[in-house]
Specification:
88 residues, mainly alpha, 89% helix
């Protein structure tokens, strides 16, 4: 694999993480408004999947941008908190 391919792969990984987090945020927002059990579960699953993708990207550390990781961590934390509060 060439250096350029590594950079592209890293960028694509980060893009996928960002899209997964945004998707989870959207699902959590809808689930917390409706308080529907199925939606809450789907939102939980989406958030867990986004967290796994994020952890994978962190462990690979290809094309790492420190600001991106801080931003993504904060989004995940905030989304998780919103979901936890909704479930209480």
């Amino acid at each position: 694999m060439t250096h350029d391919q590594n950079i592209n792969t890293g960028y694509n990984d980060l893009k996928q993480v960002e899209m997964a987090i945004k998707s989870a945020q959207h699902m959590v927002g809808q689930a917390t408004m409706s308080m529907d059990e199925d939606q809450l579960q789907a939102a939980t699953d989406a958030l867990n999947q986004a967290k796994q993708q994020f952890q994978h990207a962190v462990s690979q550390q290809t094309g790492v941008d420190e600001q991106f990781f801080e931003f993504a961590s904060e989004l995940i934390e905030r989304t998780e908190k919103q979901l936890t509060e909704a479930k209480q």
